[in-house]
Amino acid sequence: MTRTLDFDPARLALPDGHFIGGSHVGQAAGHIPVRRPCDNQPLGTIAEADETVVDQAVRNARQAWQDSGWATCPPRERARALSRWADLIDTHALELGQLEAAASTRPVSEAVHGDVPFTAEAIRFFAELADKVGGDAVPTRRDSLGLIVPEPYGVVGAIAPWNFPLSMASWKCGPALAAGNAVVLKPSEMTPYSTLRLAELAVEAGVPPGIFNVVNGGGPVTGSALVRHPGVAKISFTGSTRTGGAIMSETGRHGVRPMTLELGGKSPQLVFADVADLGHVAQCVARGFTANAGQACVAGTRLIVHRSLADSLCEAIVAEIEHIRPGPMWHAATAYSPIISQPQAARIDRLVRETLDAGARLRAGGGFYAGSECFYRPTVIDRVSPGMAALREEIFGPVLTVQTFDTEEEGLALADHPVYGLAAGVYSRDIGQALRAARRIEAGTIWINRYGRSGDMIIPTGGFKGSGIGKDLGRQALEASLRYKSVLVDFEAA
User: Pairing relation of β-strands 155-159 and 361-364?
Assistant: First the structure.
């Protein structure tokens, strides 16, 4: 059955250009080459939108938002269109999964059976939530009525990352569209194709043309033009902390606008001495730093383990990762991801070598798989100390650092990071100890006795400190796509 997922990337029909006003637009300042991450071979090109194209997209979106009735129609009507869109995404799972796998780090089996259904379910979740978030009538004077009325912003400018292109697009457009906004989305220039097809399906489902638009291009040209545009009423971005800070600065110079930012992470996995099943913990920790080859903001790349368990747990983790083997993203059997680009692969290797040169010890991995400069071996490093590169920086690769502690207080202190606060994992049989840790650790998401998101869209995600502002997913994401107007009505006629 899984053999039917195998495909030849050279035979794929790749969309090009941008998707504006319900149709493809080929206008470009130039074209950007797109390469296959798993072998660094050319896949195709994508048009780059300059300020003129971005202006066209934003103006078109604003006009569609005003003329189509999308913002003012009954929320159930928006919900029906979004639900049809989610159904079409499911129907086209194989096509979308292949487009995703060819240009990204997502193996086709994971894309078809994981990422695409997740994308459809996120759209469906926000469709179901569309008429369940509203305003309030609040107590005021006896002869008046106070109303708090939610309204959509207008045009939301969204920038999605390369690591989970379809899923991240659904996080951006799902709540914004359900709330009645129009969206101009810029996917990563490295992974542009699946999102273009996603936009086509939206129109086919009945989302009015111009309500969901896609502009392609790099951050310095297309992304910058989008965040600067005065017609963009809100910004939503997922990516690095450095780029998030640059977006805040750029936006501030061109007007005050709200934004949702899901940024970088350096997430701890904190293992207390009382865990019952060391094998289960090893599996969770291993998945936490090797999924998508560690190329996830929430990757659990800092293992903080009680000293009494450190050696045995590290041995179990090494046993878990020894069987991992790379392969082409278009083979159904492949379950391990390449590094997105050659510069990023070189950066990962450099940071690992710097850490080892500083005195850390290599427990497993290090370097690339034989014959490849695209797949980095899952790497475990212990004897790390503050200031070492692998412990300090967000590597965004399959690299786990190991630190030990003796007391609960010491473990909690190590779990905190001076910059990041996106996620954390806590492993303990003592619920009191686990909840103390959850309360103490400054992070937007805490997983207890597991590591990684579930399919529960009701649980929001987003970081503290340098890991971001606001939330994706959950009711909070829809509420953040609305602005609230206060209305005070006197009963006395004017």
Answer: unpaired
Element (DSSP H or E) covering residue 147: strand 144-152
- Residue 1: what pLDDT? 40
Q: What's this model's pTM, rounded to 2 decimal places?
A: 0.95
Q: What are phi and psi of 136, to 5 degrees?
A: -140, 150
Q: Which domains are present in the chain?
A: 2-263+468-485 (3.40.605.10), 268-456 (3.40.309.10)
Of 262, 243, 266, the closest CA to residue 351 belongs to 266
Could you identify the residue written with the tokens 């220039």? 189
SS3 177: helix
Which residues are bridge partners to 25 per DSSP?
18
- Helix/strand/coil for 347: helix
- Return the SS3 of 194: helix
Largest CA-CA distance found in the chain, in angstroms, rounded: 82
Closest C-alpha among 181, 51, 188 to residue 481: 181
pLDDT digits (tens, 9 = 90+) for 316-350: 999 999 999 999 999 999 999 999 999 999 999 99
Cβ(20)–Cβ(215) under 8 Å?
Answer: yes
User: Amino acid letter at 188?
Assistant: S
Give residue-wise pLDDT tens across range 60-112.
Answer: 999 999 999 999 999 999 999 999 999 999 999 999 999 999 999 999 999 99
Name 248's bridge partners: none
* Dist. CA 398–CA 295, nearest whole Å: 7
Average pLDDT over residues 166-174: 97
Active site residues: 262, 297
| Cβ atoms < 10 Å from Cβ of 277 | 12
Residue 463 CA to residue 469 CA, distance in Å, equals 7
